[in-house]
Amino acid sequence: MKNFKIKTLFLSLVISTAVSAQIQFEDNVPFQQVLNRSKSENKLIFIDCYTTWCGPCKWLVSNVFSDKKLGEVYNSQFVNYKLDMEKGEGLDLAKKFGIQAYPTLLWLNENGEVVYRIVGTNSIESFLEYASSLKDDENHFPSMVKKFEAGNREPEFLKKLAIAATNGYEANASTYVEAYLNSISKEDWSKPENNTLIYSASKTFDSNTTEYVLENSKKFEPTLVEAIKSQCLDYELKAAIESRSEEKLKALLTLVDKYSPEKQEFKQSAELYFYQTIGDRKKLNELATKYLKSSNDPNLLNEYAWERFENETDLTLLKEAITWAERSVKLEKHFYNTDTLGQLYKKVGNTKKADKWLKESKILEAKENQ
Questions:
Q1: Catalytic status, residue 54
Q2: How far apart are CA 169 and CA 83, in angstroms?
Q3: Average pLDDT along the chain
Q4: Between the CA atoms of 195, 203, 218 and 257, what dihedral angle is there, to the nearest 10 degrees?
Q5: Kind and range of the H or E element at 115?
Q6: Catalytic pick from 34, 35, 47, 54?
Q7: What is the pTM of this model?
Q8: Alpha-carbon dihedral 208, 211, 214, 217, rounded to 10 degrees
Q9: Banded pLDDT at 202 (limits 50, 70, 90)
Q10: Of 35, 57, 249, 322, which residue is the catalytic one?
Q11: 49 belongs to the catalytic site
């Protein structure tokens, strides 16, 4: 019995140590309770704004917030709070703080005002740098904005402000990025340290930054140039869809030929997505039949096979979708495309093949989620 008690005590100590060696969050407690603790302990609040479906949110929990050193720093320096933004008080706070994407990480003062924000995953080292930087009120985003409005145009300051605004998806980010780029020589634009800001300033083909990068592409990293082209093409597609303009779609296809002639599959997927989004099913089905019969993109094949499963009842169209799903599975077999194939067979009444593929999908899902 004595040995059992010792082992139990040892086990509890091990568990206690493991739990403490990570960021300790107040989990979905009332926001006012967190504010009260912030005031009493004179600490900033660090908030992990998450949703249950957000994969990157879960990655942060497993790979970053579990780090021992990070836990020690954040537990001593901040009141740590995590909140599901899609239920309870999270719904109102998501609106209040203008949450646009997940994960969003916020640092608040004791009055509940945002002093810094980042969107997306970051490394352990980056979170440690934020903790160190935010000890100084001068590095709080509102303080930097006040300096900018007061006329500070020093390049290093503008760079820090532009990075903070870009990382946090702040409303005036483009203004700060442009101010920084204008404060340095264009010869310095191609320095790797400026890649993120150059990318954020290059959303359209007619922007000054994009034009300079494309005209001087040999000065920049090839991956950055290609990323800018893709971003601009995505922007043009979004504009065409929002205006429901076939003319803008045609203009987009011309831009692909001009800037990225190797991306012919992008032209096809752009046309399909355009007509799918605006709800022109006749044109969508016509183009899907035309393009997918020769496509070797397993994801595109699966996407539109599933689209037909969800939206069509015509037997001919469904059988054609089955050929796409079969080719997708042949190219790359996953739980999701075998499920698509099984569901399509079920919808056309082929129970034997439906059962086969749906059973295989379950087996693959268990393997792929291990």
A1: yes
A2: 20
A3: 93
A4: 150
A5: strand 114-119
A6: 54
A7: 0.76
A8: -40
A9: very high
A10: 57
A11: no
